[in-house]
Predict the structure.
Amino acid sequence: MASESNPISQVPSLWTGQVFHFLALSALLLLTGFAWQAMGAPSPIAFWIAIAVPIAHQLFVWMTWRTQLQRRHNMSFSVYLPIFMSFLAGRALSLIALGWFDRESLKLSASPQIVLTALLAIPSLYAMYSVVRYFGFARAAGGDHFDPRYRDMPLVKDGIFKFTSNGMYAYAFMTFWAIAIAFNSLAALWVAAFSHVYIWIHFHCTEKPDMAALYPTRASSATE
């Protein structure tokens, strides 16, 4: 149900943007398979679980958001949010497990490893702080698909959002890169890259069409 001040306009179909989504995902998986073999097929169970969790997460979000907009189900936000957060935690935990099993395969010496980890962790932690402090996890998780009050909130221009319209995808995802470098793991580094590329595919194929419907007067915004 939309608010009067910000009605939903031209709701995208379930499949809007998804042809490119699945073509891009297929190409990513093919490339990942070749890369994994080139690395010597390390930790197969841990590696493919770490790849599968982001895929399951983003497929869940796509299906839930689109069916919610089209009023095809009655999942409440109180049910959706714990599932969303469980997938998010699963991404980090599966990557940490892979990093542990594949540790030191990247063969960085201590100094560059520490420096790179810090350079990646600092902006990612600031981005996550900004999401919690100024944006809120509920809104970041897609609360505007469920509750009209999120659609009436102004654009966030504080914290990391002073510098970029999409601090979550541009910087918060650097956390995964930092984890990979911290474990000195080549396999984890590849999964971090996969996850980062795949979230931008999600943005362009799923989130952007949804935002155009939810925010017709500011469809070009990336922060909502």
In short: The chain has one domain: 18-218.
